[in-house]
Specification:
There is one protein chain. By secondary structure, the chain is mainly α. It contains 13 helices and two strands. A hairpin with a 2-residue loop joins strand 1 and strand 2. Helix 7 runs parallel beside helix 10. Keywords: Cytoplasm, Nucleus, Translation regulation.
Length: about 220
Amino acid sequence: MENSSKDDYKIQSFDIETQTLLKTALNDPGSVDLEKVCSVIVEQSLKDQIFSREAGRICYSIVQTEANQTNGSSFRRHLLTRLQQEFIAREETRRRSTQEWVCLVSFICNIFDYLKVNNMPMVALVQPVYDCLLRLAQPDALKNEVEVDCLVLQLHRIGDQLEKMNMQRMDEMFYLLRDGFLLQEDLSSMGRLLLLEILEFRAGGWNLSDTAQKYYYSEVTD
């Protein structure tokens, strides 16, 4: 019930017609154009970072309802096709708009987090998610606090799951983050703090001690 109320809250940011479309999709997906529903969710996710962080839950609800009611997977198919298109165009998106780019990364990571097959992450999404996060770990991206913040946020949310799927690529990412922290001179003080926190977070088994949490929280709020 908690998830449903939050989904309703997020839908309130749309116009009335779109709200009706999404509410119908959540309750009776077989009665609406699911490709259109997918486009609405993706396009809003690329504009609204708060929505992009939560859209995975809405997509999960539609996928589950469609599977339960009709044993279908039309919405998931449309969603994965659209994600593939956006993923292919990711560098162009990054050049055009940093905000749109971090929204895209957030959305893809949230879909990875919510959409499971037999309670396991979808294998088809593992490498695209890694590719996006590794792009955020490159030296030019580490200079941008917005991109560093996005990277750290996603690793807090799905880092543990990703590592279990492919530890080698996670190691590769953290070599980049460590080198960036130690060697890169053009990082902002906040960017450097965020990198230190995520390095410590993974070293602690994807967990921070209470003392470390208080330290980083106080530094960020100050």
